[in-house]
Amino acid sequence: MEKTALKNAIENSRDATKLGEVASYIPELAKGNRDALGACIFDTSGNLILEGDYQTKFTIQSVSKVITLICALIDNGKEAVFSKVGNEPSSDPFNSLLKLEIVENHKPLNSFINAGAIVCTSLVAGDNGIEKFTRILNMIRKLANNDSIEVNYSVFRSEKLTGNTNRAIAYFLKGAGIIEKDVEDILDTYFKCCSIEVEVEDIAKIASVIANNGIAPWSNEVIIPKDVNRIIKATMSACGLYDSSGKFSVDVGIPAKSGVGGCIMGVVPNRMGIAVVGPALDKHGNSVAGIKVMEALSKALELSIF
Ligand code: DON
């Protein structure tokens, strides 16, 4: 039933890839295939379903913000993290600087916009960027059950060279006392996290652990403490698709996180992890066809949590 639903969702959403554009503000991402559409379901009993262009490789981009928040919360506790970053949805684009100057204490509104993720990156355990990055990469590999996951260094160099808005955000946060230590080192770590290369199977497995209350379906190992896992699902639900999170909740109703590489990761509590990739994006930076696949799947399998 799930396999048929996923196959139909992909087939019926293929045309929507024509409605979006591949991200080009990071020049290397412009090489992405705008026609690609693939998906994976990994359920909490360990069943795997792959459909469409599931072998497409893509960089994880903002989906990494979920794993960075997991590490920041495990390493520092809830109070310390949320003294520096908020939990409120943002009605602005993901890389906006607009509210930083006016919000109380200059705290980024949430950990899934770029400003909030840069703060969380700075909070991850490690004396320097390399140690922090290793911590995040190891967590991604563990959650995906895949030790061969690596950085795409062409994308990393492209982000580093053109990431002036992120640089402005990070220097502002340093000036406001929200981040400490070396700004360029933190930015390098953030860019590297965004440039990690994956396939939908990796992301669906990460989502399945979150769906399974932090426990890996393949080993029963607790990877994410239950209280952290609860915060992750709540934040995905409120903030995962930036300034279209509310519409996504209404239309799809699955806690999710998007990235400009074209991925949407969805977590259906106690049932399954879902990952879709479709590099053609809408104006919010979310996969146009990816949203359609999620919507069709949610309707067909009654996945909305609301
Ligand atoms: O920092 C950036 O702008 C990108 N590396 C990540 C942004 C992103 O994925 C937003 N997601 N929809």
Task: Give the helices and strands, then pairings.
Blueprint: H1 2-13, E1 21-22, E2 38-43, E3 48-52, E4 58-59, H2 64-76, H3 78-82, H4 114-123, H5 129-144, E5 150-151, H6 153-162, H7 164-175, H8 183-194, E6 196-198, H9 200-211, H10 226-239, H11 245-251, E7 256-258, E8 263-268, E9 272-277, E10 280-281, H12 288-301
Antiparallel strand pairs: 1-10, 2-3, 2-9, 4-6, 5-6, 7-8, 8-9
Helix pairs in contact: 1-12, 2-4, 2-5, 2-10, 4-7, 4-8, 5-8, 5-9, 6-8, 7-8
The structure holds 6-diazenyl-5-OXO-L-norleucine.
Which key phrases capture this entry?
12 helices; binds 6-diazenyl-5-OXO-L-norleucine; 306 residues; three-stranded antiparallel beta sheet; alpha+beta; globular; five-stranded antiparallel beta sheet
Structure report:
The protein is of the alpha+beta class and 306 residues long. Helix content is 45%, strand content 12%. It is built from twelve helices and ten strands. The model has no long low-confidence stretch (mean pLDDT 97). It binds 6-diazenyl-5-OXO-L-norleucine (DON). The site of 6-diazenyl-5-OXO-L-norleucine has 13 residues, from loops.
